[in-house]
Amino acid sequence: MLRLSDVTYLVRDHDEAITFFVGSLGFVLREDETNDAGRRRVVVGPTDGGTGLVLALTDAADAVGRQAGGKVAFFLETDDFAAQHARMVAAGVRFREEPRYEAYGTVAVFEDLYGMPWDLIEPPKGA
Questions:
Q1: How many domains, the chain?
Q2: pLDDT for 105-122, tens place per residue?
Q3: Higher-confidence position of 64 and 85
Q4: 112: domain range?
């Protein structure tokens, strides 16, 4: 069996990224450790498991928020779109559009703290 456990997500600052992912998106802080060499490893992810994001500091300022070249790279799936959308809006998450209904589910594009687009999506029931 293979599964994708974590992916690297470029950030400017660990603490501001933790605030966004935990406070605004509702993720949990899975790991926040500093090794003997002073290197900090931070991992956040959805509360029920699945792939986590390793928040990695970078000096390449132009890469932050552009990891997918301006395209949606991350698809945050929910089983209650209306509740998650309302919670995220209340937490200050900026949506680029109103929710729309597609054959593949209810979806809306939102921006992370660096302006990178993500999809919030609820697949159709039974999919």
A1: 2
A2: 999 999 999 999 999 999
A3: 85
A4: 72-127
